[in-house]
Target: Protein gp37
Amino acid sequence: MHDIWNPWHGCRKISPGCANCYMYTLDKQRGKDGSVIYRTDNFAYPLQKDRYGSYKVKSGELIRVCMTSDFFLEEADKWRDEAWEIMRQRSDVIFYLLTKRPERVADCLPRDFGSGWENIWFNVTCENQQMADRRLPLLRDLPFKHKGVMCAPLIGGVSLKPYLEEGFIEQVICGGENYEGSRPCNFDWVLALHEECQEANVSFSFIEIGSDFIKDGKHYRLYSKQKQAEQAFKAGLNFRGKPMHFDLRYAIGIPVTAEDCYRAAYDGPHCHACGSRLICNGCSHCGKCGN
Model:
């Protein structure tokens, strides 16, 4: 996918949400071991240029980092400084970081990070209340200008109300679990999160119902991720709250204007009814969902 940058691959399971990790499942299907951590050949993806000398990743794009690992993984300490330097060079691009290791973050930041870089959007995973109460105080105190929460896989009820009231969370994403041994996602949990976010005027995205979905006491099994995303969209819970503003700048310090920013195109066959629409970087016209 054009909006994903995986500078390294592989991870170690450390949290309840890791039990049925999708990356481990997909690696197993390919005959690989998801616990083997290695630097990828696509490490410098944000710096790649086309034949005309322009960056392939355009100004204003949202790039999700380490979707098959964790950016703050201990085994990646030897590579992280180089990855930070790439994000420093591409200060015109938004980098979405997600971690289950917020306790490591303070010691893994660049020396000149200060109160945060404008192009870094930092998120923590909160799959249940225990993890929310452990990780959100750390999220609150870490020096990032943009912060969010990922409640996926949502494997238990989560209340974010006291944290939302503090005002440091700009967006909440939630979704059910997929692949091997999927645990149920209860619609009541999703509704409760939605109501809390709506009350706080914080953007909320319900991206997929998961493989085992409970609504009104009934279990629904749905294994197509496309169909899961459609059902999440049809729930009608997604909304934009307070707008997020990223002060993006080119490497020489000139601001990126709205006219210069990448414009996402949602013209794929399933874009109109996808639960991820609010957080998507647009269709890359890869053809994978055309059938």
About this structure: The chain has one domain: 4-244+254-279.
